[in-house]
Amino acid sequence: GKERSAAIAALDRNFVAALVAERLPCLELVHPLLERPAANLRSNVTGFRRFGAMKASLVLSFITRGRDVLLSDVDVVWIRDPEAVLRPLMEADVMSSTDCTSITADETYARGEREVGPARCAYMPGNRAGHAAFNTGVLYFRATTAAKAFAAAWRVRLLSVAEQDELHYVRTTEYVDDQYAFNLLLWHGFRNHPGGAVTSTRPRSRVISVVVDPKGSAGEANVQAAAEDARGARRTAFGWRSGWKQLVEGKVGVSRPGGAVGADEARPTSFAFAPLPARFFCSGHVYWVQQGGERRDCVAVHTTFTEGGDTGKVWRLREARLWLLDPPEYYSPAGGFLTFTPPQPLAGPLPPESDPSASSDFDDKYRTGWLVPTALRRSPRLRAHLELVRRHLLALRDALALASVLGRTLVVPRLPCLCDRSEAVTIIPSCVFEASDLELPFHCPISHILDLGRLLRMAGQPGGVPIRESTLLANPLAPRSLAAPGATVRVAIAANASAIAAMRLAGKAALSVATSDAEAKASLGRESRWGSAEVLHLASAEGIFGGWADAASGGGGAAARDRFEQLMRAYVLGGSWCCSSWYKPHGAFDFAEPVSTSALPGGCGRDERVDEETAVCMRTQQRRRAAQRPFEFRYVPARGGSRARDGYFSLEVPSRVAEPP
Length: 661
What we know:
Blueprint: E1 8-10, H1 13-21, E2 26-28, H2 45-63, E3 69-72, E4 76-78, H3 83-86, E5 94-98, H4 103-108, E6 134-141, H5 145-159, H6 178-189, E7 208-211, H7 223-227, H8 240-248, E8 270-275, E9 281-282, H9 284-290, E10 300-302, H10 309-319, E11 337-340, H11 372-378, H12 380-406, E12 409-411, E13 415-417, E14 442-444, H13 452-457, E15 467-468, E16 488-494, H14 497-505, E17 509-512, E18 515-516, H15 517-524, E19 535-538, E20 545-547, H16 557-571, E21 576-578, H17 584-587, E22 588-590, H18 608-613, H19 615-627, E23 635-637, H20 641-646, E24 649-651
């Protein structure tokens, strides 16, 4: 119902042309700085700051016309109409989303129950301390005088970084983008009240008063006295006066006779601000990590707290079935799909949060975190997580081998995890992201384990395997045939040849726990009974690939193995967990990688029963299974090269040989 009130702000001519061709309403915000095809705008400090000023100017162009504005970044997806959520907050002049990752804290502190707010959420009435992080991904400006003053000051702050402000108390060389400038205005005055506490505009409201010009017009004659106030409580926020002056002079927004604001309007000294509720305006951490991609109460989702750049954001949106731009062939690739049930955490209670016998003394470079060995001793959960990831990588590697052999696209399932990721050392020892509501275990994004960009590029290589997200088979855009009875064939994993024979006699698809490429082709390949199935689902993939048969792929088992292992090294393996130290080399934990797949001895890998009766084949599989057993994680200082110079730690893996003598 809001389509006629919405428009897309296009920053380059090609996008404008595309939107016009699709008959979509758009605003042309073309700027030469934004049209450089090879430029990374975010890495261009000046350019990105000017882009932020364009956002402020865009807001001003509407609110000075008397129109309220709801503005969202391109990586925000609207799930439902926000009007019912916004309506109770309409006394605010300005609203924004936040980086608060705790719905519980956001709603508890809305009742003003504590003085110290948790990280990123300390914006609630009564908070006297704690960090508040406001996010410009979703903004709402009402067409009020105070909102105009805020937008004008925001714009001035972005365009005047190289200049001195009127009170000479802001460093003029600091990095400032649109979000930081927005936060600076709020931080200046949201605790500018008696007692230094955040203050609501009325009892039990989450709308707060932000005092940015305490002395008002009367203070203009005593600028020096304000500048000498060490706490800054009597200072005027940077850009507030000059922004107002531009409004009065008609230099910004829509100029009416006498300016963008009435000549008789007094410059506001404060404004009403509402941090948008974290339950409804969901950060990426809330939506994908804490809620596992479930929509629940989310009105909008912003792909924040996401690794992998734009590739990672698109992948997360695909997983949430919120990405609608893939062509039909994405959902029906040639060869069909392969998927599997991933390894699960060991049965029993969650490992304890910390080991009381381990030292908690900081020992990293900055003395604010822990070296890898120390952190590992402190956190039993991290130890359990690293072991679980070892199993995930083994299962994923074996599933990739089978997908390659069968010519299928691999659907990577949701992977259970026991430890979140964070560059903040507060992740140790609990494994829970600081000030979040995360419950362990949880389904972690694939980017927690793999470099998603590298993984997806594998499909373009000879022998590479295309990858799809865990939810693809249930996506409404996928062919209906994928949900039809019989579309998915479930493949059992049998312990021995007799069990395989019994399953196949009963009409079931089955593989052995040591399936070679040749045996997989014979059982599930195109010429087999199950070759035409749209989806093959393995009951398990952990350690089931037995190796490459001696004549596989027309080039011998060794050649097939070498090609596959090159792909694994280039596109799959090499990840790490982060971080127990702000100095990454001291706090990054290499994941345990599976031992390379084997080229099988002559005569092995052709028939399961023969493999069980032939000594050399049996010894080969025994060594393979032994090399895949759990081991104690031990990290030692890296030896030689740049990793040693930088202070990295390497995982000391026990001698494990999968090849037969």
